[in-house]
Amino acid sequence: MSSSSSPPSTSQDVMVLHRIIRFIAKVATHSFFTELRVIGGENVPKDGPIIVTATHHNMMLDPVILSVGFPHERMLNYWSKATLFKHPVAAWILYSSGNIPVDRKSNDRQKLFKGTFQALAKGNAVALFPEGTSYTEPRIMQVKDGAAWAALEYTKWKKDHPELADQPEVKIVPAAIVYTNKSKYRSAVVLEFGKPILASEYEKQFLSEGEGAARAAVKRMSRQIESELIETTINSPDWDTLYAARMARDILWEGDKAIHLDDFVVVSQTLVDLFSNTDIVPNFKNIRRHLLSYYSLLQSSHLTNPVLSSLPLPQSLDPNTPATTPSRLYTLLILVRDSLAAIIGLPFFFLPLIVHIPAYIMGNIGAKLVEEEEETQAQNKVAFGLISLLFIYSSAFFFLWALFWYTPLGALLSGLLVYLFAAYHTQMIDGNYERAKRFVAAWRVLVGVWTPRRFDLSLGALSQFMTPKTPPPNPWIERTRGPAKSETGDTPLVRSSSLTDLQLQKEPPVKTRASRRPPSRRLVRHVLRARVEAVNALANLFDQLEEGGSQKRIKSSVHLAQAFGETIVARTVAEGASENGSNSEATEGYRAVKEVVSFLRQKGAKIPTLRHGRFEGNWAAALSSEGEEYTTSDEKEEPVWAPSDTK
């Protein structure tokens, strides 16, 4: 029997390299992300054969996150091309690191999944990504049939092996990997496991003799996998809706960690559903436009709403307001004081910062190499930074070991000191990173608003920065059936008929670099004005929603409508939308507007309102480039409002 089909028992059971790789991955994960929150771990069996189907939106970080956060510390086996296992040494490395062969050239499904069957027969866990490729889109675009074929073919194979009769049936465990900001350093990750899908529920149809019955059973199971993944991820009909929902979320929860990670997905999906209802209020387009403009300007200026909301901008600092020199100097000293407070802890962080600067620089270079591929940026940051740290920590170890005269005890002490130093850096980074961002933002704002207005970006030149930039479409995505069509509205593309859907694909070419962004000082006034406009628009939206009456409803995701006790309506999908080309039934969910607003408040949203009369925002935001009060031409009747209790 060839090595490609016979895993060495020692490497398969112990998986030495997998354990080493997982340890390194755990260190890298905790260094890059602030938190990895695991939800639904009780849905993962402690033992027995399982197939884990995970979302795939962040390249190599997805298997890293899945392996590091997988419950019960179970070892995961990933599919790899069978031809890679031909050489005995390569086979041992692949098996030991958690890979199993899949013969993609075979038309015989039993041979195709032979490595998978052997792993499942031992009660192991097999992990795969049914979307087929990593991509950046506003929703789950495709779920292919490889996982369903593997699970149901295994049940058939198991019947031919009586010695496995007492083994538990194979279960499919959906796993959703959701990033709060998948390319941002010190963001967070949510890893949520759905309820297991039992192969036995589809076995009868799969094994029946009816024409097309097996394929129909596979399609049913794939749709169930897709449904489970959709319920545990954030899905939007388009980029503008997703960006508007993100901006609203950042305003309603101003702190980076204000939303509990357990609620992050459901809160985000609720806001996406809210902004998907374009007829919810008469001036919805204007409201969304203000949110999108602010979102786009923040991206262009490298500022964030939580940082801006925390900056002190006292009225006496307004260069357009008459104030005595002592008063102006005093309030300027307030900003200086806050800046000094932001960096007061720097001496304690100075040495770790200096030592790790090469890793930060290399991570930044890695991200810039793939500016147009958001799903690759974090991978490059981690990879480039990790390689740099290996050199840094190795050099530090040998330097310390030399001080201990290369003694065995010295080696132990040197390794311990390097480990403690790395842990100290990780422990200190969050607070200092946030203080550094506030420090930089404070002086960007001060320079921007005190710079003569003639240096501000003109409104004509500003227009290109008022619309959010969307990622380029992934050429390897096959647009799904039914309502989800291509971006141009054309007929949906045909789904692949491959059994494993694992064809080797070239990475999309890196796009040409975008035009250079202007200095942030030329955008600051525009950003601050846009912030007031966005908060004002959001307040106006919620005021109209709460005045709309208790009977007003919005269309929502079906699983959220079911969870919060609202209406589920059946509808008929047009002919040709289903797998067999015939009419089919789908459902639509609805939630009461008052329930949605109450839900958001319950989760900690600070919903603004315009009911108490006119509110003025910060002086830097309330002035136009001509020094006059600023409102949009189509909404002059609405008061300008922004939170006055900024921290």
Computed Rg: 28 Å
Major beta sheet, specifics?
Answer: 8 strands, mixed
Number of helices: 22
Shape: globular
| First-residue to last-residue Cα separation | 69 Å
Short recap of the structure:
This protein is α/β, with parallel strands linked by helices. The protein is built from 22 helices and eleven strands. Helix 2 packs across helix 3 (about 60-70) and helix 15 (about 345-370) crosses helix 17 (about 410-450).
What do these coordinates show?
The protein is an alpha/beta fold and 647 residues long. It is built from 22 helices and eleven strands. It has helices at residues 9-14, 16-32, 61-69, 88-96, 109-112, 114-121, 146-159, 200-207, 213-231, 239-252, 264-276, 284-301, 305-309, 325-342, 346-368, 374-403, 408-450, 459-462, 524-546, 558-563, 593-602, 619-622; strands spanning 35-39, 50-54, 76-81, 99-102, 125-128, 171-179, 188-193, 197-198, 553-556, 568-573, 584-592. The strands form two sheets. Strands 1, 2, 3, 4, 5, 6, 7 and 8 form an eight-stranded mixed sheet that branches. The protein is globular and about 85 Å long.
Describe the structure using short key phrases.
647 residues; alpha/beta; 22 helices; 9% strand
Which helices and strands occur, and which strands form pairs?
Elements: H1 9-14, H2 16-32, E1 35-39, E2 50-54, H3 61-69, E3 76-81, H4 88-96, E4 99-102, H5 109-112, H6 114-121, E5 125-128, H7 146-159, E6 171-179, E7 188-193, E8 197-198, H8 200-207, H9 213-231, H10 239-252, H11 264-276, H12 284-301, H13 305-309, H14 325-342, H15 346-368, H16 374-403, H17 408-450, H18 459-462, H19 524-546, E9 553-556, H20 558-563, E10 568-573, E11 584-592, H21 593-602, H22 619-622
Parallel strand pairs: 1-7, 2-5, 2-6, 3-4, 3-5
Antiparallel strand pairs: 6-7, 6-8, 9-11, 10-11
Helix pairs in contact: 2-3, 6-7, 7-9, 8-9, 10-11, 10-12, 12-19, 14-17, 15-16, 15-17, 16-17
